[in-house]
Amino acid sequence: MVLFLAAGCIQPQVKREQTPPAQQGPAPSTGPVIPPVAPKSPPAPAATNMEFSLWEGPLYSLQYPSNWEVQLLGDLVAFVSPAENAGDFRENVNVFAAALPPEAADTSAAQLFANSFESLQASIEDFRLVEADDQTQLGNEPGVKVAYSGTSKGVPLQFQQRVMVKDGTAYSLTYSGEKTKYGAMAPIIEAMAQSFKLTESTAPQVVGKWVSYGETVFYDSGEREWPDPSNTPPLELKTDRSWTQGDAQSAQGTWDVQAIEEKDWARWNTRLAGASRKIILYGGEAALADGPIEEAGNRVDALWLLYRAGPPAISRPGQVQIKFVRSAS
């Protein structure tokens, strides 16, 4: 079976609110370098007199103001400032990560922005490019920083976007807010950008291709079923912390390895002797499936993935349990 159909995903409960539109990662392709613009402004000082909290995800971490709200919106994480008055535009910083297609894996951050420049102009009313810096960094990696202005429903807005590409994945950090507040917000934007760090893999042993060795469906009604494992496409875990399943790559996301907690065993309703770490597969920022890692010393023998499912993936609600072993090819 193909893993993680939407009908059967393990999804955390996330509060969804209307958030101001922000530019996500520009579409990958080839094209010109970043367009010429006005002289660069000096870097903003680090934010002071504000308490920050740490947000950690499978691919990156960063610090954000502690009184800001965190919203998970698919592949995008939004950090949204508190509203001062009803109807206010809430300043926000959105972070977006996306794996580039193989043919665009070598595209630079400057090319990504240049290729999306025309669509950016068309999507923002009264668009004006204020600044472009192709000598900046994000996550200690070379990237570009651009600032541009526009209006929305008659409100003048200011945007700042930083784009970086690492190991075939594009990362974008974008600020959106009222133009009159940009000066006061600049130190906060700078502090968040400077705190952005890529998460390095702590489990290189799991990188590679894995195939289903055995599958069991535990239905909530008490029955069990053993699907043919040969029908499940291979799973590939890549060094850039992304995963794909099957030739069509219709299922994909990011992966992480973490220590097993006691509550994990209770949630899985099973135990694996000697297991201390778990593999987690994400789709966007939501965990789709996880399970214990079967290992001995530095050798990983099997990955167990467990997730909730229901029709049409399986005939009725239950838990799917799949054991993956290394592919011989």
TrEMBL record:
Region (Disordered): 14-42
Feature: compositional bias, Pro residues: 33-42
Domain of life: Archaea
Name recorded for this polypeptide: DUF1795 domain-containing protein
Lineage: Archaea, Candidatus Iainarchaeota, Candidatus Iainarchaeia, Candidatus Iainarchaeales, Candidatus Iainarchaeaceae
